[in-house]
Amino acid sequence: MKNQNRNLRAASIFGAGRFGGATIEFAVVLPIVVIMMMGSVEVGRGVMVRHVLEEAARAGCRVAVFENSSANDVRDIVASAMAAAKLDKNYDVVISPAQPQGLEPFEPVSVTVSIPYSEVAWMNPTRYMGGKTLSGVCVMPAEGDGASDPDSEDPPTGKKNKKDKKDSKKDSKKDSKKDSKKDSKKDSKKDSKKDSKKDSKKGSKKGSKKGSKK
Q1: For 188-214, b where at least 16 C-beta lie within 10 A, e where not — what string?
Q2: Residues with Cβ < 8 Å from 127, sequence gap 6 or more?
Q3: Up-side HSE of residue 126: CA atoms within 13 Å toward CB?
Q4: Going by C-beta distance under 8 Å and a sequence separation of 6 or more, which residues neighbour residue 195?
Q5: In this structure, are residues 71 and 97 in contact, taking their beta carbons and an 8 Å threshold?
Q6: C-alpha span between 179 and 149 (Å, rounded)
Q7: Vertex 90: Cα angle to 85 and 96 (nearest 5)
Q8: With pLDDT > 90 as the criterion, what percentage of the chain qualifies?
Q9: Mean pLDDT, residues 11-16
């Protein structure tokens, strides 16, 4: 009996010691796990916002490379992209050159959209990304009109022009209409000539037959 009691006491003391060790280990590991989870959330939010900024900068740069575009046009398209992502507060847009007009063909045009992380953070205060600024950058060449030979040493003749495109489309439509009208007139004239020839031949044949009968 004495031995059994001793064994039970030893087992209870050992079990209590294991439970106390697990509690201490959990208390030590829990803050590290929580910090890692918070850091992953902040970094993930930063990556997501940066992707949105890059898309907004790309949309603005596509507008900036055209000849008739202005800085206000670029800012308007960036504003619409940021509003769609619900990030339309306290962001900054930098366009280089500041007025993207009268550029040489293939001259680089860049649009940078940036926003402080504190404006888009899901958790406050931010421990990892606090005080940092997220940015999205896009660089594109000013578009050429595509009229020059790529193998020639001469530079492209100019940039794309929306008005020129519209005028060329109108001219092509007018030319096609004129050609179709001319073709229809020619066909109608040919048909009328053929019909007149057939009628004259028939009339001459009938007249000759009547004369022979008489």
Answers
A1: eeeeeeeeeeeeeeeeeeeeeeeeeee
A2: 35, 38, 39, 42
A3: 20
A4: none
A5: no
A6: 29
A7: 90
A8: 26
A9: 54
pLDDT above 70 (res 13): no
SS3 of residue 212 by DSSP:
helix
Place of tokens 């366009």: 95
Tell me the C-alpha distance between 177 and 184, whole Å.
Answer: 10
Cα–Cα–Cα angle for 168, 169, 175, rounded to 5 degrees: 85
Q: Distance between CA atoms of 107 and 210, rounded to whole angstroms? A: 86
Select from 45, 99, 93, 113 the least CA-distant residue to 68.
Answer: 99
Per-domain residue ranges of the chain: 45-141
The SS3 of residue 206 is helix
Residue 59, pLDDT score: 94
Residue 163's pLDDT is 46
